Amino acid sequence: MNNWSVHPLIALFLFPGGLFLFLWGLFYEWIDRKLVARLQNRVGPRWYQPLADLVKLLAKEEIVPEGSDPTLFYLLPVLALACALTSALYLPMAGFMPAYSFRGDLIVALYLLSMLTIGLGVAGANTPNRFSLIGATRTLTQLFSYEAPFLLALLGPAIVAGSWRIAEINFYTQQQPLWLMVTQPIGFLVALVGLMGKLELPPFDAPEAETEIVAGALTEYSGRGYALFRLGKNVELVIALTLVATFYLGGLANPLQFLLKTLGLLVFLAVLQTLFARLRIDQTVGLWWRIGALLAVAQLLILFVMKLV
């Protein structure tokens, strides 16, 4: 094969393509689990545990529960993972230029990142299991409470950069003397909390609280479907960390910056997961919807006033 035919395959599957995101997502899952375990004075999993779990799930039989739509049951995990992977096309993954960029790709990327949560909610509502239905209700309720503040938090860098294209925002943040987390601390905080709510990380894990509702919306998923949903969450974790690092931590210009900045954010999230106990669903929804959205809107108003002045 000549170089012309080999390069697209490398870009698609290896680095920073789909296979890269799969492996990097599993790696970050292990880092997160290991850090939380050590902070809680536990040993934590070995480095290969996430991969072993994935292989085991892919090998298990997939059983469609009675009363569920089989088409939706099989399709939703694939759709959720595909949307998460597609959103990576518009981001500077591993510090490289986005594979595809156009005006307004920020909105498209955020929409695609929301599809995983919507897929989880529909998957839970598609089964008659009471725990799945409760998990689906909590998932969709939390979605509406965290998507809006997360979106508003990412609009701040877009406004000061004067662009809705992620590549241009990345270039703008690299040129600034100070990281935007310093000049826009409210947006940075709202983005981090919104990220934890989107991914249902503790203390915002009420939609899948194992001590209350087993596995939440995914209670009836056991094999490949559960593996794909779990892999989709890992991929979305990498993409969301990349997005926050691009906007608030001075942008991403090379693989070293990508590694250091996204790992730094992951460590900070692990510390937050350890410090706080699980919140009730009414606490995660009512309190954050009022405070998070108002803080994000207040920062946007300040930015608009500064641009006018």
Output the keywords:
72% helix; membrane; globular; Respiratory-chain NADH dehydrogenase, subunit 1 family protein; 0% strand; disordered N terminus; 13 helices; mainly alpha; 309 residues
Fold topology:
Elements: H1 3-14, H2 18-39, H3 49-59, H4 70-87, H5 105-125, H6 130-161, H7 166-175, H8 180-183, H9 185-198, H10 210-213, H11 224-248, H12 255-275, H13 281-308
Give a structural overview.
By secondary structure, the chain is an all-alpha fold. It has one domain. Helices cover 72% and strands 0% of the residues. The chain is built from 13 helices and no strands. It has helices at 3-14, 18-39, 49-59, 70-87, 105-125, 130-161, 166-175, 180-183, 185-198, 210-213, 224-248, 255-275, 281-308. Helix 2 (18-39) runs parallel beside helix 12 and helix 4 (70-87) runs antiparallel to helix 5 (105-125). The longest helix is centred in the middle third of the chain and has 32 residues, at 130-161. The protein is globular and about 60 Å long. Mean pLDDT is 84; it is low at 1-6.
Q: For the residues shown, what is the average pLDDT?
A: 84
User: Shape, please?
Assistant: globular
Strand content: under 5%
The number of domains is 1
The number of strands is 0
Helix count equals 13
* Spatial gap, N to C terminus: 58 Å
**Most strands sheet:** none
Query: What order do the SSEs take from the amino end to the carboxyl end, as H and E?
Result: HHHHHHHHHHHHH
pLDDT < 50 runs, ≥5 residues? 1-6
Helix residue percentage: over 70%
As a whole number of angstroms, the C-alpha radius of gyration is 19 Å
Global structural class:
mainly alpha
Subcellular location: Membrane
Membrane topology: Multi-pass membrane protein
Protein name: Respiratory-chain NADH dehydrogenase, subunit 1 family protein
Transmembrane segments: 9-31, 72-94, 106-126, 146-166, 178-197, 237-256, 263-281, 287-306
